[in-house]
Hints:
Two copies of one chain form a homodimer.
Chain A: E1 3-6, H1 15-24, E2 29-31, H2 38-46, E3 60-63, E4 66-69, H3 71-81, H4 89-113, H5 126-154, H6 169-184, H7 186-192, H8 197-208, H9 210-216
Parallel strand pairs in A: 1-2
Antiparallel strand pairs in A: 1-3, 3-4
Helix pairs in contact in A: 1-3, 1-6, 3-4, 4-5, 4-6, 6-7, 6-8
Amino acid sequence: MRYELYYWSGIQGRGEFVRLALEQAGADYVDVARQPxxxxxxLRLLEGRGxxxxxxxxxxLKAGRLVIAQTANILxxxxxxxxxxxxAEAGRLWAHQLQLTIADLVAETHDVHHxxxxxxxxxxxxxxARRRAAHFTAERLPKxxxxxxxxxxxxxxxxxxxxxxxxxxxxxSMFQVIAGLRYAFPRAMARLAPGHRRLAALHDRVAQxxxxxxxxxxxxxxxxxxxxxFRHYPELDA
Amino acid sequence: MRYELYYWSGIQGRGEFVRLALEQAGADYVDVARQPxxxxxxLRLLEGRGxxxxxxxxxxLKAGRLVIAQTANILxxxxxxxxxxxxAEAGRLWAHQLQLTIADLVAETHDVHHxxxxxxxxxxxxxxARRRAAHFTAERLPKxxxxxxxxxxxxxxxxxxxxxxxxxxxxxSMFQVIAGLRYAFPRAMARLAPGHRRLAALHDRVAQxxxxxxxxxxxxxxxxxxxxxFRHYPELDA
Lengths: 238, 238
């Protein structure tokens, strides 16, 4: 099956969690909005023309007749198919639960630079962003990283993976989050490094997997930038 | 099976979405933290003692040997078991996708009164909350309500339900969101009423279902208050 991924063409954003899973699995997929005319096709689907199950927002995935939205839901669907998650119910739910916790962290990270409204520019909410950033780096970030580090430490199958004995989409997402947080908050992440050594080692192992490494070195991997979720504004990383 | 629900004892919060599903299904469950000693038991599980799969935060559900966290994940698990969601994959994913979109709306609603930090009181971030509220009621709220209204209108099985021909946990959650938004933002919701008549009718039908009505009239239903997600601060509903 050829999967069609629909996501904004200029940012990694939430689409990146899906891209990493498709790339690591060597799946046949097309990143639709980055093709000529693709963004218009995406917007038509978002308007819901001819769809009973229209998505609220990108990313969404077309898989045959299915149109699946919400990042964690897409990964729930792809997980067993791409052998990136357990098939049994307990493991499937556990992987999904971790992915939803990562999604919460991602949303909070985004709102550090947009605490007032997504429709405003960062510079229009800079004062509030600075205040939120101080709480995020002092309270929320260590809380999330400490929890996720403990998940690795407690995995009965060993601390090289988040969910089970093998790579999962949660490991790939964890790589992306660590990479993004280091880009956005290099000082805070350096300060917090002693508390998440296992996550750092996981990040490095994922980056070195041949398919992930090839993807990261390709033009398909967009660079981090100041339009995405993870933005480097030095004043927010004091 | 007797389910054990773990959630903060003084608020409806995210636990309410699970309570409504358990109540509507007539499931055997105990609301652990509202029993004597229950909150301490919940905190022990949150610390992860003896658990490989410890939750990050309440609510979580014990179902036999499973411990499942993240509201939408709990409902994904309960859906087919309580006959509150389709069993087939396409319908299951669609219900879950809608629930995750509702979860995004709930998180944005919470952050209206807490745009800077959950660790601060509302009065410590009142100025920022007022600014965020103006954008929320003018932009985000109509966008979400318009989308969810269109989901009802497009349901091939009719506009009395969100997902399929019968009641689902998404309908129950939709009831809760409409009730909560009306409590928190009565003026904005009155102004937006012409745009979501189907959602309002769904809210009323759900409230009149015998088991839901009995639950709402019972002491098990906590009232809305200013510690939960949906808070009525008149200055945020201008």
